[in-house]
Amino acid sequence: MAKQQIELMLYMLEDIRKVTLKGVSGLSKEQLFAEPVPGESCIGSYIMHLAEAELGWLKTLSGEDQPEDLKKRIYYGAWFDVPAKDYLPPKEPIEPEEYINAITEVRERLLTYIRNMDDSDLETIQVNRWVIDGVEKKHECSKKWIIYHLIEHEAHTRGQMFMLIRMAGFKKKVENN
Fold first, then answer.
1. Topology annotation, domain 4-23+41-168
2. If you placed Cys at 51, which of 62, 64, 106, 151 could pair as Cys (CB 3.0 to 4.6 Å)?
3. Distance in angstroms between the alpha carbons of the first and the last residue of the chain
C-alpha cells in the first residue's frame, strides 16, 4: 500500500493549520467577534469557514453525511455563501477555545479519513453536486484535487484573516511564562 503522497498531504494539512492557529492565538473573544474593518466579516467567521469548507468537502470525499451537532457548532453556512436556516451565527462573542475545538474536531475527522486512504485512492473522481436557483450543478474532481484545494483554501483564508487582524490593529494577549 503506497502512501507517499498521502503522507505529504497530511504533513501539509497539519503544517498549514499550525501556522493558522499561531496567527490567531492570543486574540480575545471580542476581537474574534468584532468587525475588523467596517463591513467585513469577523475573524471568528473566517476560522469557522475553514471548518465549514472541510466538512463540506469531507462529505464529498467520503460520501457520508457529517454530524448535525458538529455543523451547528461551526455555524455551517451561517456567515459565508448561502446562509443556513438552522445554524445561525452567534449573537454574542464566543470563547476562543470554542472556535479552536470546533475546527480541530473537523480537521481530525478529515485527517482520519485521509489516513485510511492510499496513494491510488487520490485519483478517484468525486462528484460534488449542489442546486442553484433550482438547477443542479456538478463539479467532477479527483480526491487529490480536493485535498490540494483544502490546503490552498486555508492558505488563502489565513492570508485574509492575518491582513484583517493587522488592519484592525488587534493586539494579542501575551501569556506570562
1. Four Helix Bundle (Hemerythrin (Met), subunit A) (1.20.120)
2. 106
3. 45
Largest CA distance in the chain: 56
- Give the CB-side neighbour count of residue 145, counting CA atoms within 13 A: 11
* Amino acid identity for residue 67 in this structure: P
The model's pTM is 0.89
Q: What is the pLDDT along the chain (177 residues), one digit of tens a residue?
A: 799 999 999 999 999 999 999 999 999 999 999 999 999 999 999 999 999 999 999 999 999 999 999 999 998 887 765 555 667 788 899 999 999 999 999 999 999 999 999 999 999 988 877 777 888 888 889 999 999 999 999 999 999 999 999 999 998 766 554
Listed by start position, the domains of the chain span 4-23+41-168
